[in-house]
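Q: Hi! First time asking for a complex rather than a single chain. Here are the components, and I think there are two in total. Is that enough to go on?
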Amino acid sequence: MSTLVEDRIDYASVVQSPAFQELVARRRRFVTTALTIAVAWFGTFVLLTAYAHGFMSTILVPGLSVAYVLGLSQFVLVWVLTAAYLRASTRTFEPLQARVVAAARTRAETPR
Amino acid sequence: MNGTRLFFFAAVLAVTIGITIWASRRTNTQADFFAAGRSVTGRQNGLAIAGDLMSAATFLGFTGLIYLAGFDGWVLATAALFSFLLILMLFAERMRNAGQYTMADVLSFRLSKRPVRAAAASTTLVVVVFYLIAQLVGAGVLIRALTGLDFVPAVILTGVAMLAYVVLGGMLATTWVQIVKAALLLAVGAAMCVAILWQFHFNVFELFDTAASRHPLGEKYLGPGGSNPNPLNTLSAAVAYAVGTAALPHILIRFFTVPDSHAARRSVGWAVGIIGVFFVMTSIIGYGARALLPDGSEEATAGGNLTAPLLAQHLGGGEGTFGGDVFISLVSAVAFATILAVVAGLLLSASGAMSHDLWFNVIRPDASAEDREGTGVARLAALGVGVVAIILTIMLGDTVNVALLVGLALSIAASANFPALVLCLGWRRFNTTGAVVGIVGGLVTSVALIVLGPQVWPAGPDAAPFPLTFPVLVSIPAGFVLCWLGTVLSRRSPEDQNTYMELLVRSETGLGAEEPTFH
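A: Yes, that's all I need. Here is the structure of the assembled complex.
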């Protein structure tokens, strides 16, 4: 039954619908921002690791180097951005997805 | 082999075979075989994904590298963790929504099915077989060092266990073997960290400071540059791990085992948490080995790979003591379990490329529905690929460079699979010609540059025409450019555009995605 309905969905009109446009735009904005921050921070870390051995080997307190602190900060970056994405998904993207799917199903079930 | 070690190795085999027998009774359809009936929860899948990354290469290899050279061993760990941001935000949900069993499903959704599938399945097989051989060589060398068993019987033992899990128990067995191993490895890693830190009053800085004072580099040991003087090599290795990990077929297929995109996302959340904790542990174990093992132990660690087991022996009381014997046996058996679990996942993804992609969609697209539902071809494909990988491993022998094979696999995944997947999900104009040119071109570029590079070039590393071990700084851009060139230089196909709408809707919303089956 459900597959029959899905066969009759007009995907071009779903793509045109405001809810879908909003979903794609919001998700794209979030992902672009998050990945830009991530690539910038990770890229800086890797460039410093490759080219600035002296700076990275600076000892902050005995036993703790700049390299280790910046390495750990990558872990924190991944954890924070992952958590932020999961939160945005639950709060923003999932309700929009549900709206798009419900509207598409209703339209496909209505006899033309 | 001594009794304690035999006992722990046998226990690992017994538990995993038990899981396989249980799973084999629940594996009846293709969706069971390749995707565990899509009934794995987000948390379970997160543990399994973490397990795929906590391989012998990361547990034994990274700890060894940190022990020998310091911080450089840890850069690759941060790169591998970083790749999960790419997986989460670019692939995880959209793969789950748009695909069925393999990465090629997503590519062939909107592009002409047979050529794209054939190209994607071929790179999957190349990546997986290189990775598989690397792990099997590692298994043979490791088991020989830990138990005294010869290389060839050790490879055969590992290979037969791998075949049993996959052929009999499919993805369900592969997933649960991975979950059990991940839990074991975390527990053993935590026990080692507590035992190490206990000697330093639970002060990590005191541990690191002691480690630095016992290394010839001194304080520089806590900074980068200990193993790799060429900055471009450091950069390319980091990029290979960061991008290549995100396109590894055996990790991406795990997103097909969960019921929906919500669970796919949650599994990445669990995975990054677990992997992060594990990589912090590897730094404590690696630096701990430097601080605690007697001077001149480098030789005994066999290139670093036996650092963690030797440290366990030392922590348990030293060689010849009961505690030392139990702890080294336990860590060795967990390392053995790690290899078994990872090779099983690799073989399963190769079997998907072979049977689902190549057989049912390229060679025999007219196969009956009954054949498609069954698991016969899939099991046969797993058996075939597994046996070939075992034979290749034995032919290559124990002298082949494991790091080279892993580098090759990661570079090909990053250069051939990654650009095509990103563009297929995000670029409206992308077409079949672009995908095939990009995938084949990325594969050829990375293999050619590796052959011209320092690890393979016959005249020696200094004479190699291409200076870098990992070709990704050149081959990833090449993959993207070739995808783009192939697309803009070929005729526009209206069909590709129509299915793009369907792929866009399905991947973004889950409308029409594969439903879970329950038993």
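A: Chain B has a mean pLDDT of 90. Let me know if you'd like any chain examined more closely.
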